[in-house]
Amino acid sequence: MTLSHAVSTWRKSSYSSQETNCVEVGRLDGGAAVRDTKDRAAGYFTTTVQQWATFINAVKIDRFD
After folding, report:
1. Could you state, in order of their start, the residue ranges of all structural domains in the chain?
2. Is the pTM higher than 0.85?
């Protein structure tokens, strides 16, 4: 699957407040892009819709704690 790499908007979690130690997520056609707020110039990685959904579900069930 080929993703469009034109990120429409970047979004940071409302839980992160004004902190810079977090990530931002951008919507892509067919997936998502993720970047570090401390180093936006370093670029971002992309995921498919299915990969992103699997990751979010794992976070919700505390898979990484």
Report:
1. 10-57
2. no
